[in-house]
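Researcher: Here's the sequence for the chain we discussed earlier.
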Amino acid sequence: MRFAILLAALPACAMAQDFNYGDRNTDFEPAFPEQFRAPITPSGVELDLEVIASDLVHPWGIATLPDADGWLVTERPGRLRHVLSDGSVSEPIGGVPEVHAVDQGGLLDVALGPDFETDRMVYLTYSKPMGDGLSATAAARGTLSDDLSALEDVEDIFVQDPPDDTAKHYGSRIVFPGDGTAFVTTGEHSSMETRVYAQDLDKTYGKVIRINLDGSTPEDNPYVGQDDAIDTIWSYGHRNIQGAALDADGTLWTIEHGPKGGDELNRPEPGLNYGWPVISYGKRYSGQPIGSGDAVQEGMEQPVYFWDPVIAPGGMTFHSGDTFAEWNGDALIGSLYPGGVVRLAFDDEGHVVEEERLLRDQGRIRDVEIQDDGSFLVITDFESGSLIHVRPSPES
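Model: Thanks. This is the structure I predict for it:
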């Protein structure tokens, strides 16, 4: 049954007005004015929150099923659930790959394939156990049965190389640009030993990966035919990309966790180096500098935008639809710390020109999913997490 819980309407304007960015961890100057601390801009919208389902265990990803058939939701311990529009939650869907459910590892993103309505293909990302305590970011696909009880003919289409024994910084999101390919994002497993792999083209740590839907390599990838480079790499020098989305023009945007300060919004382009762990707008938790100690270096790309202090980003999406129509084209980003949803608005050149903090009292928001009407869903990443539908208050 639906959890008919209407939380008190939350005035977005009040939440934004009493927000300030807080003290910085570093003193790096932004490379251009729009790169940092855009004006806090209240939208004046009051929000109604309805809990559709609760008691989900560390939910991580959401995919909306067609024909008002509800949603697929991943739980990090390794379960894929069907949540119906009436709030009922299925038993675990069968056929999901075994996951390395340790620390940050487990079952991560879920997405419907671009031809789901004809082939029923569902894509997952997860931490794949590789034996002897090792694991790697992986992406798999399988066919969802007509009764939604199982994934069939499941196969891996990407496995990060090499595996590692640190169960952190897996990434990972999967998105489809509509040209028969998929982008898969990875992390660099966090350790001092492995973070440098983000700069290595013979490893898939800290990368945006581009593959065909069956896992083969697109012929126009930037490193096809290059010796000592993995040909599925699209861009490199990333830390831990946990958000990825396509804007209305089909351009890929990603958002990644920085260290202490320095969360980044990027627009990855083929063959470019985004700097980690050589440059960063953050610093190590010990207070020591990252890499060169600089935030800018020739041959390394600058983020479109960065945060200090961090927002600890989860999933992201771009808004479209009649509901919250004034936000169309804005990015909505889940925040794990301090929590809530971050809204960013852009100018015609792709610069961030305003920021707003929403749903701040909901805590760790792991993913955001726009519905056809422009309302949106969020999931909260807790031991007893929730799937929440967000609409405008009738009074707004």
